[in-house]
Amino acid sequence: MERGIVILDKLARSALRSQRIPQINRPLAPEIHFKRQHSRSGSDCKEIWEMLSQLPLFAGGEIVRGFGRGSKELGIPTANFPLEVVKSLPESLPTGAYYGWANVDNGPVHKMVLSVGWNPFYNNKEKSVETHMLHDFNCDLYGQTLKICIVGYLRPERSFDSLESLIAAIRGDIEQAKAFLDEADKAKLKEAPYFTEKLCSSK
Question: Which ranges of the sequence are coiled-coil (predicted)?
Fold first, then answer.
């Protein structure tokens, strides 16, 4: 059985019209964590969990300047999508931390963790999608094309009592992501054709 969901900005949409994505197994822990942390109505919870069950999700777009906090305050640099890409994600995709694969300008594919939401610790006014790739690029990536494959959900977003607590949580996310992405069914998504195909803008 093969399935997949593709949510992309206009730059990336045409590249994945016919791509088929292998089914993946999902760890039980994030599902339990999700249900314990979300106090939504039954119909809302069902819609959100159905959305998560459709992962992997692919997206792509130009890397833009973010808030400048990833490297300076957290020591965890991120690549940020423009608002157009953020708004292209399904509304039922819950905010929080995710893990998956990413590359820049069709280069090598790296493990990543992803934040989707408003970052309550900083009380952001705009929703953002921030990707931390587990690779040291040693250069600015602004203007280059970021492609991501969101493979799984780690935890809901929440505020923290201190910057140190936030950093510790992200470090924990990174260690979880490394372990999950080493599993065979998730590791094979690193080879998805999407990461090597040229993206063409669609009218």
Answer: none
